[in-house]
Design a protein that fits this description.
CATH class: Alpha Beta
Strand order of the largest sheet: 3-2-1-4
Largest sheet: 4 strands, parallel
Order of helices and strands: EHEHEHEH
Distance between the termini: 19 Å
CATH topology: Rossmann fold
CATH architecture: 3-Layer(aba) Sandwich
Length: 101
């Protein structure tokens, strides 16, 4: 099965992705950090660098990946993380909705 994992290089994704790959799934994994592309490739993942807070970028990445399943493994940013947006789950509601459509 082809699976798109949003947040593949993060705390949740790092645990989920190896399980999917070990079970024979083709995984396309998103990361917001170009620096993490090499480690994703090394773990058997097709990397997709995408800002999950950019709806058009998310749509384009998912369409390009052509997955059968989308897994949302990105946690909300920590309040200590300097970002251009306020931290919290409410910020990720549009991301979850975009990944579902």
């Amino acid at each position: 099965m082809r699976i798109f994992v949003a947040g593949a290089s993060g705390a949740i994704g790092k645990r989920l992705v190896p399980l999917l790959v070990e079970n024979g799934h083709a995984v396309v994994g998103s990361t917001g950090s170009p620096e993490k592309v090499g480690s994703l490739r090394a773990s058997g993942v097709e990397p997709a660098v995408v800002d999950l807070l950019d709806p058009e970028a998310v749509t384009a990445a998912v369409r390009s990946a052509r997955p059968e399943v989308v897994a949302h493994a990105r946690r909300p940013p920590s309040p200590r993380t300097p970002r251009r947006i306020p931290a919290g789950w409410a910020t990720f509601s549009p991301v979850r909705q975009r990944l579902r459509s």
